[in-house]
Write a structure and sequence with these properties.
The strands form two sheets. This protein has a three-stranded antiparallel beta sheet, covered by helices on one side. A two-stranded antiparallel sheet has the order 1-4. It is built from ten helices and five strands. By secondary structure, the chain is mainly alpha-helical. Strand 2 and strand 3 form a beta hairpin.
Amino acid sequence: MKMIQNYLDSLESYLPDEMKQDVRDELEASIMDQVEDSQEALGRELNTEETEALLLKLGHPMRVASSYLPKQQLVGPEFFPAYKKALEIALTITFVVIVLISVFGLLSGQSIFDSFINIIADVVNKGIYVFAIVTIVFYVMEYCDTNLNHLYAWSPKDLKSKSKRLALSRVETGFELVVTIIFMAWWNDILTWPAEALIELQPVKVSLSAEWQSVFWSVNVVLGLSVALAAYNFVMASWSRFSLAAEIILSVASLVIISQIWRFEQLLIVDPALNEDIRWERVADHVDYGIYSILAIIAVICVFEIISNFRKIRSI
């Protein structure tokens, strides 16, 4: 039958030369046996549609040929659990290191936008290298038939009870980590004010009041601990009672700082341009209103997170 011969010819094209004839003979004998059985059951020869159905049942020639080949994956099932864990750890460490290194770029005067783009580019670039290196290492280990006992060595006596954890998205945590670092860099550069703003086409010097000095280091402490906690959550990829409690403490500390800022007598100092048509007191009031609105939004978010995290702790 021409269709069967075409099938076998296609099968051969996916096999090395030393295997072609043996595999073809074996599969041809199997197919012909099935054809004879079907013809005896029907009492006639198979038509084109019935032959096609039989070959479709066998599968694509490429897939059938692959079943005769010795190794079809870079990392086999025995090594894959250890490979997956090693890859996860390596990529996590790479991401955290890149983000922490980027802090020095931000503090050295690099723009926030450029730093963010560089972080994304470095994560993708270095991540590809890490993925390739880990994959090659495990491929070589399996190719050399490395003993797995040292990878999976364990004893039931060594197993420890682990507290229940809630799943946490690494994408969200990574984004939070990057944003917090960027804000921390901006905050540490904020005392370089006065800055020049353009209000109604008039250049205006805007500077922070001296009262901001009282919360400068407390904000830095909260931001630094937030970075450390976000990095920890990114590595663990889950909430625990410890991380939830730490998150609540940081939210409460943020509320305390916000309440302190709220009591400032003056937030900004506006040095007006020589233009008597603009009421600079009202401009300063509007700027203060904007800052207070932002503080109120942050406070609401902190309260929401405190309530949410308390609920998560109760569910663990």
